[in-house]
Amino acid sequence: MRLYRFSPIKSEDELIEVIKYLHISCNKLCFKILGKYLAVAGNIGIFSHYDEEFNKLKRIQKKITLKPDEYNNKYLNLKNAIKIDAEFGVSEGIYEYLYVRGVDPYRSHVGDIDFYLDEKEYFKLKKLVELNKVKGARYLDRLDMIELFDPDFDVLVYISSLRWFDRIEAKK
Fold first, then answer.
1. Domains of the chain listed by start with CATH number
2. N or C: which end of the chain has fewer CB within 10 A?
3. 107-144 pLDDT tens trace
């Protein structure tokens, strides 16, 4: 039996399949918890589960990203944005940033995607989450983001009031 759905990821083609899976699954998680789909922020995280897999993913990441646009030693700008077509009622998604998370023996998730809401909607949702009115959501103060999670999903969702590249510009 395989403990992790996709690991170990061994090629760029397998990585693209994982990104497609994340796009669909994270959108479904949003819909399950919030009752609607959200706009993707433009970045995607892949979680490695083995040391050799992490090393392989970092080599793939180096090949498909631009090093000069590195942010926070984590997020790398893709040379070519990855577009996932609409499918299963989920809108298309365009991803411009990729990060590879190191091995964490306490997390078996495939990865995560960031979504964004306009500021007014975000603060309304944040208030509900802080009041424990949204099952499967928690507010992460240190990141000023909302995390969505569900034991039936092997993905995580993060929501903020800014698209990812807007967050990068704000930090500069």
1. 12-171 (3.10.180)
2. N
3. 899 999 999 999 999 999 999 999 999 999 999 999 89
